[in-house]
Amino acid sequence: MISVKNIKKTYTNGDIETHVLKGINLEVKTGEFLAIMGKSGAGKSTLMYQMSILDEPTSGEILIDGVDILSLSIKEKTEFRLNKLGYVFQDYALLPELTAVENIMIPLLMRGLDTDLAKKRAMEALADVGLSHRLNNLPSQLSGGEQQRVSIARAVAQDPIILFADEPTANLDSVSSTHIIDVLREINKRGQTIIMVTHEKEYTHKCNRIIYLEDGLIIREERLRD
Ligand code: ADP
Asked: SS in 3 state form for the chain?
């Protein structure tokens, strides 16, 4: 599904070079729920950004679904992101003036679905995350956990080949965080490949595999289930 070969990422500010990723090799299989763990500053978000085509590594190779991502044009990359990848961010990134169901419909409409079908799919996605009773609420009328569930529903409604979640529980209390992880696991059980960054071990026990990052390198990995 995704194959990362010797990825390096160096930031250059004037004379100062910061080597953030120092040669990452990683294979993720279809249907995996992978956690990327490590302390703050280890390079987790940077790695996620390279794999999810939100940034470009200094060197290395990334294959997703057989496509050599770094050889694509800017336009092709944008289309690949829009059509094939799903994103969940720690701050939910919902549009504040739109309701839950409208937030999910927007990217579907952008992909050319007609309004009725987009609405049907958005409502199904909200039902999947247990929010059928919150269809017409604005983000400001939802708790943090509910907003994050809307953002997961928005990503999953696009039927992405990989769902990337960057610290999805960072702004939530432990009850809401556990709920979010349960929702992700349920989605994963239906076959969705998920790659999640977290620095909290307690939220990794539903994953298949954990890779530990330290100072820009994978230092070990742990397999929890096949
Ligand atoms: P994590 O997600 O594990 O907390 P990050 O990937 O966010 O770590 O950052 C890893 C390191 O890269 C940090 O030391 C950070 O300061 C550095 N870094 C991130 N972005 C930049 C940048 N644009 N320029 C220079 N250094 C950066």
From this structure: CEEEEEEEEEEEECCEEEEEEEEEEEEECCCCEEEEECCCCCCHHHHHHHHCCCCCCCEEEEEECCEEHHHCCHHHHHHHHHHHEEEECCCCCCCCCCCHHHHHHHHHHHCCCCHHHHHHHHHHHHHHCCCHHHCCCCHHHCCHHHHHHHHHHHHHHCCCCEEEEECCCCCCCHHHHHHHHHHHHHHHHCCCEEEEECCCHHHCCCCCEEEEEECCEEEEEEECCC
Q: Which of 7, 16, 39, 46 to mutate to test the pocket of ligand 1 (most atoms within 8 A of CB)?
A: 46
Q: Is the CB of 149 under 6 A from ligand 1?
A: no
Mean pLDDT for the chain overall: 95
Average pLDDT over residues 143-151: 95
pTM (2 d.p.): 0.94
Ligand 1 center–CA 149 separation, angstroms: 27
- Specify the residue with its C-alpha closest to ligand 1, atom 24: 11
Which atom number of ligand 1 is nearest to the Cα of residue 43?
Answer: 6
For ligand 1, say whether the CB of 216 is within 6 Å of any of its atoms: no
Cβ-based neighbours of 110, under 8 Å, separated by 6 or more:
82
Does residue 94 carry a pLDDT above 90? yes
CB 114, CB 123: distance < 8 Å: no
